[in-house]
What does this fold into?
Amino acid sequence: MAKIDFDQYAGQYEALIAAQTGFFDRDNDYFVRYKVERAKALAGDADAVLDFGCGVGRAMPYFRAAFPNADVVGCDPSADSLTIARRDNPDCRFLGMSELSAATKFDLVLASCVFHHITPTERQDALRYCYDRLKPGGHLVIFEHNPFNPVTRHLVNTCPFDADALLLTMAETKRRMRETQFEIAETGYCLFFPAQLAALRPLEKYLSWLPLGGQYFVSGVRA
It folds into this structure.
């Protein structure tokens, strides 16, 4: 399976995301806003946060709003995506993967729908990369597509930049995090209700055990 080159999609990423997610919520920033807010609820306040696989930096305004005084950093292997991210988010820092030293430590690392683009043989190394850049007691929060949700699978199968996607279950994510010495703090399924049913979204916290949400999260802590 050919690896997706995200430089190829950097300039049209926003339009592709809107086309893929518009049926769920016309506000296609809903997803990134939701995940940053959930990550803050899981990890608490932070002086330094990292968006691992930040792409074009769509989450950065929400990181800045959630953590106004923090050092907000994004890293990504796509140079073209980072160029856009820097242009649109001058109050944040952006680095290539090899440029971000393990000497730089974070209270929170968020990886939003990143690991399904990482080949299974490299996932442990990616988790170790995150682990090594966390302070003791710091949180890694991973969001991933739920492979048990048929709508999610359809969206992945029809998304141009998901052509290399290999979805991972929550069980795999938890196992791999434990093998990287993370202590699992909290897990749950999420993103159940589209905009037409937005009034029901407060109920999601009671449904996090139900493996029908569009995505799931796993929060792990570095000891």
User: Anything to note?
Assistant: The chain has a mean pLDDT of 92. The helical segments are 13-21, 30-43, 60-66, 79-88, 120-132, 150-158, 170-179, 204-207. The CA atoms of residues 105 and 173 lie 22 Å apart. The chain is about 35% helix and 20% strand.
